[in-house]
Amino acid sequence: MKILVAVKRVADPENLNKIKLSAQGKIDTTGLEPKASPYDDYALEAALRLTENGTNTKARLGEVVVVTFGPKEAESMLRAMLGTGADRAIRVDATDDVLDGDLVARGLKALVDKEKPDLVLLGYQQVESESAQVGAQLAEYLGWPQVTFAGSIKSEDDRALVVGREVEGATAQLRATLPAVVTVLDKIVKPKSVQSKHTSATHAYPEGVRFAALMAIMAAKKKPLAEVKLAELAPDATLKVHYGAAELPPKRAAGVKVKDVKELVSKLKTEAKVI
Amino acid sequence: MAGTLVVAELSEGKVKKATLSAITFAKQTGAPFAILAVGAGAAGAAKELTGFGAQKVITVDDASLAAYTVERFAPSVAKVAKDGGWDTVAVTATAFGKDLAPRLAVKLGAGYAPDISTVKIDGGKRAYRRSQYSGNALGWVEITTPVHVVSVRQTEFPAAEASGGASPVESAAKALDDAAAARVEFLKLETSKSERPDLGEARVVVSGGRALKEQFGQLLNPLADALGAAIGASRAACDAGYAPPEIQVGQTGRTVAPQLYFAIGISGAIQHIAGMKGAKTIVAINKDPDAPIFQISDYGLVADLFTAVPELLAELKAHS
Ligand SMILES: Cc1cc2nc3c(=O)[nH]c(=O)nc-3n(C[C@H](O)[C@H](O)[C@H](O)COP(=O)(O)OP(=O)(O)OC[C@H]3O[C@@H](n4cnc5c(N)ncnc54)[C@H](O)[C@@H]3O)c2cc1C
Ligand SMILES: Nc1ncnc2c1ncn2[C@@H]1O[C@H](COP(=O)(O)O)[C@@H](O)[C@H]1O
């Protein structure tokens, strides 16, 4: 199975509460270490799990290609992913200000037409935009089935996947015939969330994503990393949305500490009037 | 017709409450609106939608639409939107709406504003406010295409109340499925039914973290009963198996905005806060005085939860 994984470089997800706002209302992430959006890391982990037998994680039984739309600096993220196990990387040269979700989806569509993967995996949303749109838009541009908010993926025979789609309070089990687009939640990196056709039914992964061994990082320097111009993929770079000045949400002031349960209940009754 | 087409979210032939927030959005724009119900049993559900002042209620009711898959639903929504010439399509910001809207936006050549919390209209120009950067910024987005698609965050738009009147109901034919529809098969829905109020709609939410261990249910069930509350959990509590995964609150769980939120034995990680900081009053019980949750809570109690929770229950009972 050949899998394309879309990954976005973002400011440190654990420290987004430290972002600042410029006088013009531009979001300033200086000082925050750039990383892959976490759900995209999980998408890569899912892709690796789908192309191996679980026990020999070095033998790639398929191909995993990572792609980002981003600036030159995003290449270190791609290199790290090559070290983790991806076979090839593609960087589409662009900066956030010339992109919107729709344009990324159109660019990805053109790439998919060239690369012809069986599956495209994406994070369900990236933590900066919080849009949760690129995967579904890509699926529509391709005319492919989509399964968004996936918490589990089982590949039956590399021609179809059974995917658990998380909806409020329930899981919908869907069978999607490949090629298809799937967007993943964090649940996808639980020990038994992904099962390739090569994996035994009892195989359990360690929780979370794998990390690259030093040797693998060195070896990854030789793996191909291609650069593509955005205009080659999407000649029409018109954006469908435009972001104006942002605001910081009202800060919740830390409230009071109560000394005991009695005081808590009394304050909830008489001050907050919520019980 | 310029105005908004509100796409109702149905479940087992009933209208989901998130739909009423999308109706409120439509009313706030001031333009006329219609409500579209798609699904097997939509004609029956339409009765629930006629009292909100919509110009009409449109149904697409077909046996092949028994289970939701976007490849079967989106074409009909797109066709009704185009045929009616609606300039805005509003859906719920749920797993349903957020799956449907992007696909629909592409079909309509429309810009999409996901998960909006506010609409502002200034000289005929609209801007939509939405959460970004994991809830740490609010972006104002303008759509540059003639048609807008938006998904409406339930916790930010109050549920519309029926205003009487009776919108006429008309039915529309189902559009042809996407070619991809043949490649998606709905197998089953695994649900765990709960007698408690829905997390997204409850007035009070009692959430527990990893610290509750195996006593999660034993401690929180009676408290939730006493408060008529829904129960939520941190991801760590769900991961450890103390709480079922469906009740996770946060970035990858439910977004809640109740009147009163209890965070019990929850540290207050950025991803948890993203899902509950819209609550009106936040109470935290934690034995660590420096737990980050105290930075956003209105009332903090530094205590061992294993004694504080039973005490709280007793105190509530004594005063009820
Ligand atoms: C991509 C990503 C997405 C995530 N999404 C979510 C999400 O949607 N929701 C979510 O909740 N998390 C999410 N997380 C996980 C999050 O980062 C935290 O790990 C998690 O919220 C911690 O849960 P917790 O507070 O229960 O556990 P801990 O961090 O272990 O905190 C336990 C707390 O209990 C207190 N405590 C211990 N014993 C007692 C006692 N006897 N009495 C009183 N207090 C006590 C401790 O002081 C501590 O503050 C996500 C993480 C990532 C990376
Ligand atoms: N600039 C980008 N480059 C590569 N992939 C992206 C980019 N933006 C979004 N994506 C992918 O689309 C997913 C959803 O993003 P969004 O719709 O912006 O929330 C992300 O998790 C990525 O997998």
Compact description:
Chain A has 275 residues and is an alpha/beta fold.
Description:
The complex is a heterodimer of chains A (275) and B (320). Chain A is of the alpha/beta class. In chain A, 25% of the residues lie in helices and 28% in strands. In chain A, strands 1, 6, 7, 8, 9, 10, 11, 12, 13 and 14 form a ten-stranded mixed β-sheet that branches. A two-stranded antiparallel sheet of chain A has the order 2-5. In chain A, helix 2 crosses helix 5 and helix 3 crosses helix 4 (134-142). The termini of chain A are far apart. The model of chain A has no long low-confidence stretch (mean pLDDT 96). Chain B has two domains: 4-183, HUPs (Rossmann fold); 204-319, TPP-binding domain (Rossmann fold, 3-Layer(aba) Sandwich), CATH 3.40.50.1220. In chain B, the strands form three sheets. A nine-stranded mixed β-sheet of chain B has the order 9-8-7-10-6-1-4-5-11, sandwiched between helices. Chain B is elongated. The N and C termini of chain B lie far apart (54 Å). Chains A and B meet through helix 3, helix 4, strand 9, strand 10 and strand 11 of A and helix 3, helix 4, strand 7, strand 8 and strand 9 of B. Adenosine monophosphate (AMP) is lined by residues 6-8, 37, 39-40, 68-70, 99, 101, 104, 122-123, 125-126, 129, 131-135 of chain A.
